[in-house]
């Protein structure tokens, strides 16, 4: 009965947004309250769940998305995105541009949290799209597939790292096996799948449409790459220094601050304001106007993401994930497949990949130990399951839809299907590795 209620609530949300054309944020609020009542949360606790869900998801994404939008707007307006796109195109050629952006997304995705990588790559994707008149989904989806896979499979991302600790796996081996599994998942879910989506209409946000400037007005190649990728560099440096700072509390505390994603984005924005703004002859008032426009462009996205957090929290507080996990645990299946399946079902119901992975960990751990299953592969199986079935209760679904300005139907055909492809290919890779190791 619980699963039926969840499915009906999700169906209601889809009908309200796509058929009745009700604002997605309002739809989330209404469905969250209905779901809370139907799932038996005490009436005086439902509003608190909604507020907590909005606060949790926006607390972790608000600075990243707003500051990232400002950075992306400046990167696009200054011509840096145009310069980067031109360099990548010269190296790869138009024939292989997909593979160029995939490699870029993969390298950036390893050290970078998904939200930061997403907002940083948007100007680069749109620059390639508008400069060379290529389909937005054809170029954008492969890069975002690479970001998504690194987020779900590879340490040091939060969920895989936490699973490594809970399963007592080896971080290095998990990363190595994860790279082996990730590459075919990215190739199949990214460039190969995107070739079937060339006809999907997409008019990306105008805020990130780069101004086509003459060559002499563009910032230098080093300046463009350095400024756009500074968040990646800062996170990598902070991670490396944190290992050598264990014996120095002062330096360790400093790295703890500088390595925080929100602080990294702020440092990157301040740097970009100088390197792509002031030093390029732009006035501070003009730069601040750009930043104001960027915030307006992502305001609705933030509300929608907050709404998805409200529904996620209601489902978590109702105990849905725990009930479903217990039901599935009774099935007699191969442990790696069962771990993937439990995670995938919880992900479908709750929306959060991290919540799905960490909920599954507590359920599958005793079975993993009893069957002597490889813990490194279990981390990857659960990670693959956490990428399955992205839909209307997932913040990433709405980020992709709104940034690329897609219909709900086409978001399902592109983003949601891509996520399920990489999750399925990931499972197959894990099961094959299990036969070899």
Automatic annotation (TrEMBL):
Record-annotated membrane-spanning stretches: 27-45, 57-76, 96-129, 136-154, 174-194, 222-243, 263-279, 299-316, 336-365, 377-400, 412-433
Superkingdom of source: Bacteria
| Principal location class | membrane
Answer yes or no on keyword Transferase: no
- What Gene Ontology molecular-function terms does this entry list? gluconate transmembrane transporter activity
Fetch the Pfam families from UniProt: GntP_permease
This protein's UniProt keywords: Cell membrane, Membrane, Transmembrane, Transmembrane helix, Transport
Any coiled-coil regions, as ranges = none
Location of the protein in the cell = Cell membrane
This protein's membrane topology, according to the annotation, is: Multi-pass membrane protein
Any one cellular component term from GO for this entry?
A: plasma membrane
Family, as annotated: Belongs to the GntP permease family.
What is the name of this protein? Gluconate transporter
Species per Swiss-Prot/TrEMBL record: Pedobacter cryoconitis
């Amino acid at each position: 009965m619980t699963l039926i209620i969840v499915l009906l609530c999700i169906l209601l949300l889809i009908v309200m947004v796509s058929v009745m054309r009700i604002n997605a944020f309002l739809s989330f609020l209404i469905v969250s309250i209905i779901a809370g009542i139907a799932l038996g949360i005490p009436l005086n606790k439902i509003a608190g769940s909604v507020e907590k869900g909005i606060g949790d998801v926006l607390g972790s994404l608000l600075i990243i998305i707003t500051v990232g939008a400002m950075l992306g707007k400046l990167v696009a307006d200054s011509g840096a995105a145009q310069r980067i796109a031109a360099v990548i195109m010269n190296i790869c050629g138009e024939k292989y541009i997909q593979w160029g952006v995939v490699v870029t997304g993969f390298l950036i995705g390893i050290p970078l949290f998904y939200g930061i990588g997403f907002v940083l790559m948007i100007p680069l994707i749109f620059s390639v799209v508008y400069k060379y008149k290529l389909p937005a989904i054809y170029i954008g989806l492969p890069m975002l597939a690479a970001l998504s896979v690194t987020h779900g499979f590879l340490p040091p991302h939060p969920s895989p790292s936490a699973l490594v600790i809970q399963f007592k796996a080896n971080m290095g081996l998990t990363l190595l096996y994860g790279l082996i599994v990730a590459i075919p998942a990215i190739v199949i879910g990214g460039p190969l799948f995107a070739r079937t989506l060339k006809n999907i209409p997409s008019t990306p946000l105008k805020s990130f449409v780069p101004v086509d400037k003459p060559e002499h007005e563009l910032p230098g190649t080093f300046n463009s790459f350095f400024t756009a990728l500074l968040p990646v560099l800062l996170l990598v440096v902070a991670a490396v220094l944190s290992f050598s700072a264990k014996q120095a509390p002062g330096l360790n505390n400093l790295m703890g601050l500088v390595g925080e994603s929100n602080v990294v984005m702020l440092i990157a924005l301040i740097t970009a304001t100088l390197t792509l703004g002031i030093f390029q002859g732009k006035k501070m008032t003009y730069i601040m106007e750009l930043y104001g426009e960027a915030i307006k462009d992502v305001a609705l996205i933030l509300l929608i993401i907050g709404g998805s957090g409200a529904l996620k929290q209601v489902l978590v507080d109702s105990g849905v994930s725990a009930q479903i996990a217990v039901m599935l645990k009774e099935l007699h299946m191969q442990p790696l497949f069962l771990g993937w399946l439990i995670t995938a079902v919880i992900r479908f119901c709750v929306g959060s990949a991290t919540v799905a992975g960490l909920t599954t960990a507590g359920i599958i751990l005793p079975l993993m130990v009893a069957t002597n299953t490889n813990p490194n592969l279990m981390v990857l199986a659960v990670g693959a399951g956490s990428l399955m079935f992205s839909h209307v209760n997932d913040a990433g679904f709405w980020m992709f839809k709104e940034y690329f300005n897609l219909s709900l139907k086409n978001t399902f055909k592109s983003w949601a299907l891509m996520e399920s492809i990489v999750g399925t290919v990931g499972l197959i890779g894990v099961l094959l590795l299990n036969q070899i190791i």
